[in-house]
Amino acid sequence: MEAQLPDLEAGKRFYGELFGWDFEEGYGGSVWARLGGEPVAALERKTDGRMPTVWTVYFATPDAQTLGRRIVAAGGQLVVAPYPVGDLGRAALAADPEGAVFGLWQARRHPGFGRRHEPGTFAWAELYTRDTTGANTFYGGLFHHALFAPGAEPDFGRADVTDVFPAEMPPHVLTHFRVTDLDDALATVRRLGGRVQAPPFETSYGRVAVVTDNQGASFALLRR
């Protein structure tokens, strides 16, 4: 999971105060966010101003090349073909048939999250789509299990995009971070220069608010 940001120092100040993260230099000029000494996210400098300022969720795979071919065969596309990230692993960017972008990560030395489902860490990824049936087929077929089934590991779900966003919002995957107190977290977002995109609402997986950071990257805060 990583954020593409124009200003890494501003990103470190924002997320460090909001989630209590510490940072260290990562691969290729990126920075790794840590909580309690464990990796929880990465911040990367956006080198092309035409690209969006976003958070991207990466799905783990033992073979990014093969999964990329299956994504294309299932009606999706490879936005960035698999490429090596030093000796850490291989990464790729893909899009589903509706255009929602997600990443692929084939781990070598860097396995991914060290902590999740705790305050200040990744808690959930929600796919906002206009075709929930098609999403079930596409993602369930790719990852060989019912991603959206009751009782599944609580990491990923999907909803109609118009449940939360205006009708013109394109389909997308929204990263959720867990917080202890949602109202306090929203106050911190505002104080740090971010804004509230969707005020708190109830979901089957907790109370959620959608926000943007002080550079425009959207993410969600989740109180379970």
UniProtKB/TrEMBL annotation:
Pfam families: Glyoxalase (PF00903). InterPro entries: Anthracycline_SecMetBiosynth, Glyas_Bleomycin-R_OHBP_Dase, Glyas_Fos-R_dOase_dom, VOC_core. Gene3D superfamilies: 2,3-Dihydroxybiphenyl 1,2-Dioxygenase, domain 1 (3.10.180.10). Residues 1-107 form the VOC domain. This is VOC family protein. It comes from Streptomyces misionensis.
